Amino acid sequence: MYATAGVHPYVLPGGILHDVTDRGPLWDPVMNMYSYKYDYQSDRLVASNLNPRAPTSWFYFAGHWGDKFYPLSDPRQYRFLGQYHYVNGPLGPRFKNLGRQEICQGNGECVLKGRPEEKSRMTKRWTNMGEGEEMNEEDAKRVFGAEYDSAS
């Protein structure tokens, strides 16, 4: 899904791979959603009273979401223009510093863009924001227990 109609290139040289989209049908996302409340201090996710029986177990999955990285020696793996097809997916929302007080994380580069419908290409760029998609030691101990040792 894209926020605007038009051509949406993938991150490949020369725009050789892209999606072309139109406005599509108007739909109400509230009719097809689950809403939750998360208490980051107790690490507890609760379904809202709008959908009290919504599942919550997915939130506590501690691994990478999506594909798994395979080495080139595996027959399922290949590269296109130097990019591996199968790479580890991101960690889930539980590991996105949900209790932060600011939009930017404070540990890597952070780029905030304007609204999709704005014509301006101005962006605000901050450096030293974001640490990647590996679970940090603090999160690992919280999820797997205080005796967790990343060196083992």
**Distance between the amino and carboxyl termini:** 41 Å
- For the residues shown, what is the average pLDDT? 79
Please give the order of strands in the largest beta sheet: 1-2
Number of domains: 1
Main pleated sheet? 2 strands, antiparallel
- SS summary, helix count: 1
Principal-axis shape: extended
Q: Indicate the low-confidence ranges by residue numbers.
A: 128-132
Strand content: 15-25%
As a percent range, the share of helical residues equals under 10%
Task: Output the helix-strand order.
Answer: EEEEEEEEH
* Structural class estimated from helices and strands: mainly beta
Q: Give the tally of β-strands.
A: 8
Quick recap of the structure?
With 152 residues, this protein is mainly beta.
Question: Could you name the key traits of this structure?
Answer:
152 residues; mainly beta; two-stranded antiparallel sheet; 1 helix; 5% helix
Structure description:
Helices cover 5% and strands 18% of the residues. The protein has one domain (34-144). The termini are far apart. Residues 128-132 have low confidence and may be disordered. It contains 1 helix and 8 strands. The strands form 4 sheets. The protein has a two-stranded antiparallel sheet with strand order 1-2. A two-stranded antiparallel ribbon has the order 3-4. The protein has a two-stranded antiparallel ribbon with strand order 5-6. The relative contact order is 0.11. A hairpin with a 4-residue loop joins strand 3 and strand 4 (44-47). The chain has 152 residues and is mainly β. It has one helix at residues 137-144; strands spanning 6-9, 18-21, 36-39, 44-47, 79-80, 83-84, 110-113, 123-126.
